[in-house]
Amino acid sequence: MSRYRGPRLRIVRRLGDLPGLTRKAPRRAYPPGQHGQARKKRSEYAVRLEEKQKLRFNYGLSERQLLGYVRKARRKVGSTGEALLQLLEMRLDNTIFRLGMAPTIPAARQLVNHGHITVNGRVVDIASYQCRAGEAIGVRDNERSRKMVETNLLYPGLANLPSHLEFDKAKMQGKVNSLIEREWIALQINELLVVEYYSRQA
Fold this sequence. Notes:
Blueprint: H1 8-15, H2 44-59, H3 63-75, H4 80-89, H5 92-99, H6 105-113, E1 117-119, E2 122-123, E3 136-139, H7 143-154, E4 165-168, E5 173-176, H8 191-197
Antiparallel strand pairs: 1-2, 1-3, 3-5, 4-5
Helix pairs in contact: 2-8, 3-4, 4-8, 5-6
């Protein structure tokens, strides 16, 4: 299944706040559709599916990509759920978003895909690139790229910069210091339910 390109607030109404997907807030607090206001008891499967969908839509992944990340997380030592969140948070598009250089993750992905972002001085146009500790993330040295990022920096997606990143506004350059810690992940999610959802597939 390809990346979601439909109405974003519809997803937010169904799944709750997704800081990476959109900055807009829905006017209605109940899920969309004819039966949105009729509260039904949800099955255990429905709860797990909802948590999985939160990850998918917030980080803008396809089902196949997310399954791949779950399999990678399984191979790591320690908590699979935490490893999964770290893998997703250390993607280049998400790192750009967390540095405040883009208002949402889809906007950050577009910046990366169009060649406006550099890693250690070299242009990287792959949004899923895994950032590592010690890498410097900057803006391509041309007026158009710098102007776009300058405009985005006036209205960052999230107010607080996570502890694993540092950012120099004057140079428009960020640095990754370490892996992100669990408490700095902005998305409200129970990652263990996602791991349970994929337990038979991964």
